[in-house]
Design a protein that fits this description.
Elements: H1 2-10, H2 18-30, H3 38-54, H4 58-64, H5 66-69, H6 72-103
Helix pairs in contact: 1-2, 1-3, 2-6, 3-6
């Protein structure tokens, strides 16, 4: 899941297709929007993917903004939770699709 987000950042915005940009929308699709830490999880996950894409240091960026993100441990925990929630949502979507296909 994280690899797809990283690849989506690397595509050229002028030529990328809807399928190439879809991973950037996964946080909005699969994270719990009602959760109070939704915005923080989404921002951290997208920041991580952007840093992986352009080679900048994720650790330095989060250390440079302690009031926005909090401690490094908290940031990594939220990033991992967000990635796990998105992966679970994608797996559930695949399972639903296969179940519907088997009914037909």
């Amino acid at each position: 899941m994280l690899l797809w987000m990283k690849r989506a950042f690397r595509t050229d915005p002028r030529t990328r297709s809807a399928a190439e940009i879809r991973p950037l929308n996964w946080p909005n699709d699969y994270l719990d929007i009602a959760a109070e830490d939704f915005n923080l999880k989404r921002d951290i996950l997208l920041l991580w993917a952007k840093c992986r894409c352009d080679g900048s240091s994720f650790q330095e960026i989060i250390r440079g903004r302690p009031t926005k993100y909090g401690s490094s441990a908290k940031v990594y925990r939220l990033r991992d939770e967000a990635a796990a929630q998105i992966a679970a949502g994608i797996n559930a979507s695949i399972a639903r699709g296969q179940a519907e296909q088997n009914k037909a």
